[in-house]
From TrEMBL, chain A:
A molecular function GO annotation: structural constituent of ribosome
Protein origin, superkingdom: Eukaryota
Source organism (scientific name): Aspergillus caelatus
One Gene Ontology cellular component annotation held by this UniProt entry: mitochondrial large ribosomal subunit
Regions of compositional bias (Basic and acidic residues) in chain numbering: 115-129
Domain Ribosomal protein bL31m N-terminal, first and last residues per copy: 35-80
GO annotation terms (biological process): mitochondrial translation
Residues spanning the membrane: none
Stated name of the protein: Ribosomal protein bL31m N-terminal domain-containing protein
Region of interest: Disordered: 106-163
Automatic annotation (TrEMBL), chain B:
MF terms (GO), sorted A to Z: structural constituent of ribosome
Protein name according to UniProt: Large ribosomal subunit protein uL5m
Organism: Aspergillus caelatus
All residue ranges annotated as the Large ribosomal subunit protein uL5 C-terminal domain in the record: 252-350
An example Gene Ontology biological process: translation
Length: 163, 356
């Protein structure tokens, strides 16, 4: 008994020491509570290259920022965009002239811009027309079905009953 | 006291000298409710009361009604009215937990540490809430059929095999193949979808030690301009003999830590405006990251100059002193893979081999 009691006491005190979180009991100095300093910010409207806009807070005083190069027209963010892929600067038409003169075996299969535009437009128009026709047909069918089924539904059960 | 009770009524009519009193009539500042002073004061108070009842409505004259224009009156006032007489002011110093005068918590508007805000709902936050979070939740979904029990994993900290008597009372062993205990990755749930926690912009300016402190000032101003936050300066911890930098002597680095609204505005600006304009940039390297969900990349000085805040006032900064910086994006993801998933969904491109 005499041995066990001091042992227990020591264990209890050890546990207490571990659980305390109060570290600095004798802090005599006072710490200055500094007011946080924040730079002045303005609200700025950012206009992306495709015309979309958003506002953000910034230290720059300019009210509007127009970006010429951003996620909407850079290749890294639009890897599948054909418009951004072939950046062939041919303002004077020299490359086109060269091709006309010396042939274009290496890129004969790729259509020129006008062709692609035309073909794209044509295909679009064709697709639209086909879709319209299909939709009209479907509507007609649906209406016809409705009309025909309206009478039939009433007739069929009655016929069954009769049978 | 009960003995002097009947004399209260006498006291009103009689002059003070004649009033019989149990107490000695000396110079006494102590006063009771039953004292003469209080009993005398009562009728005086009642005289101040209005005789008319306030329930009956009073009719105002037309002129006084027309002349009543509080807005015009406040506009004619040249100075502001003084504030209310009592206003709580937080103590300037924190004098410890045992001091009776405690400063209010920093969330209290009267606290000296109070930072107001947020004032806007940033675009990045809206994008995250509307699309990114649900996308990540879907991508990280792992289906477990009902009744599925995950195979038991070995404990992260191994116990010692008791092959030696010296193994007794040793702390547990670290994981196999290195001493680093990685973060536990819990399955991603609706309530632990990774999100941006904070962004650290850090810039180490070696010329601040070699030449003069103007490099550090310019770096601080530039970082503050792009981040909307005050910067902290740091002294070198290591010695770099070739740059003549000694530990603890030279102030060489500048850091801004962004959280909340500032962080989201900075992130949006970085991704939408600055990154696409960097010349010949492939993206952030896929192997970057500290394997616990924080991803770092660097910007060269010419890339830092692309920020709209620096561009708008480019002449303010000496061109050769514009600093490069390291930007660390701390996410709440536990692995780099999740962090990269989050950041690529938010618009940061990655290239090369992805190291998870």
């Amino acid at each position: 008994m005499t041995l066990s009691i001091p042992l227990r006491r020591s264990a209890v005190t050890a546990a207490r020491v571990q659980t305390t979180t109060f570290i600095c009991s004798q802090c005599r100095h006072a710490t200055l509570l500094r007011r946080p300093k924040r730079p002045y910010t303005f609200t700025q409207l950012i206009t992306l290259s495709d015309g979309s806009t958003f506002t953000h807070r910034t230290t720059s005083p300019a009210p509007v920022y127009r970006s010429t190069r951003d996620t909407r027209n850079s290749l890294l963010w639009n890897p599948s965009s054909s418009k951004l892929m072939n950046v062939e600067e041919d303002e004077a038409g020299r490359l086109a002239a060269f091709r006309a003169k010396f042939g274009r075996s290496w890129d004969a299969n790729t259509p020129t811009e006008a062709e692609t535009n035309k073909t794209a437009e044509q295909t679009d128009k064709e697709a639209e027309a086909a879709a319209r026709a299909a939709a009209e047909e479907e509507e007609d069918d649906n209406l016809l079905d409705l009309i025909s089924s309206f009478g039939q539904e009433e007739e069929q059960p009655s016929g069954k009953k009769k049978n | 006291m009960p003995a002097s009770e009947p004399s209260r009524y006498l006291a009103r009519s009689l002059p003070r000298a004649f009033v019989p009193s149990a107490r000695p009539q000396g110079f006494c500042l102590r006063r009771n409710v039953s004292d003469q002073a209080s009993s005398k004061a009562a009728p005086a108070d009642l005289n101040e009361l209005e005789s008319a009842t306030s329930l009956s409505s009073t009719t105002l004259s037309e002129a006084s009604v027309k002349s009543f224009d509080p807005i015009a009156r406040t506009k004619t006032r040249k100075k502001q009215l003084p504030r209310s007489r009592y206003q709580f002011r937080s103590p300037k110093y924190d004098r410890g937990p045992l001091h009776p005068h405690q400063p209010p918590p920093p969330s209290d508007p009267s606290s000296r540490l109070y930072v107001p805000g947020p004032f806007s709902l940033p675009r990045v936050e809206q994008t995250y809430q509307s699309t990114v979070a649900s996308d990540i939740l879907t991508l990280c979904y792992v289906h477990n059929p009902p009744g599925f029990k995950p195979p038991p994993k070995a404990p992260r900290l191994r116990s010692w095999d008791d092959s030696s008597p010296y193994h007794k009372n040793r702390p547990l062993r670290g994981p196999r193949g290195g001493d680093v205990l990685r973060l536990l990755r819990k399955p991603i749930n609706f309530n632990n979808v990774p999100e941006l926690e904070r962004i650290t912009i850090h810039s180490y300016v070696k010329q601040a030690a070699q030449e003069n402190s103007s490099w550090l000032h310019v770096a601080g101003m530039a970082v503050q301009a792009i981040s909307n936050a005050r910067v902290e300066t740091f002294k070198s911890k290591t010695s770099v003999a070739t740059w003549s930098i000694a530990p603890g002597r030279d102030t060489v680095a500048v850091k801004a830590e962004l959280r909340g609204e500032d962080m989201l505005h900075f992130f949006g600006k970085l991704v939408d405006v600055v990154m696409p304009r960097i010349k010949d940039w492939e993206g952030v390297k896929g192997s970057s990251g500290d394997s616990s969900g924080n991803i770092t990349f660097g910007l060269e000085p010419e890339n830092v100059a692309l920020f709209p805040e620096i561009e708008v006032n480019y002449d303010m900064y000496p061109p050769k002193m514009i600093p490069g910086c390291h930007i660390t994006i701390h996410t709440s993801a536990k692995t780099d893979k999740d962090a990269r998933l989050l950041l690529s969904a938010m618009g940061i491109p990655f290239y090369g081999k992805m190291v998870d």
